[in-house]
Amino acid sequence: MKALLLTILDRNDVAHLQFSPELPVRIEAGTVDTVSPQPFVSELANTYRDAGVRVTYNERFIGHPGVAAEPGATSIARWLVGQV
Question: Are 17 and 51 a contacting pair, CB within 8 Å?
């Protein structure tokens, strides 16, 4: 059972996502995020970059739930609009 669960977790790991090279990806990381710790998020961004994905990465001094609600959300919205 444990091996099966580990296999399922591995298959669903975001590190295995494949993006089209034309698709811009933005990752926001909270430096005090206890759900998605910044070192892991930073490494994920590097994994995507190593695979040829164009990644915009930003860190904020914030925890997990607040990234989209912070004043920085304006810059995220501008980035999104600039991609279309």
Answer: no
Reported pTM:
0.67
What the block records as the tokens of 38 is 């910044």
* pLDDT tens-digit series, residues 9-56: 888 887 787 878 788 899 989 899 998 899 999 999 999 999 899 999
Report d(CA 48, CA 46) in Å as an integer: 5
What's the chain look like in SS3?
CHHHHHHHHHHCCHHHCCCCCCCCEEEEEECCCCCCCHHHHHHHHHHHHHCCCCEEEEEECCCCCCHHHCCCHHHHHHHHHHHC
> What are residue 59's DSSP bridge partners?
29
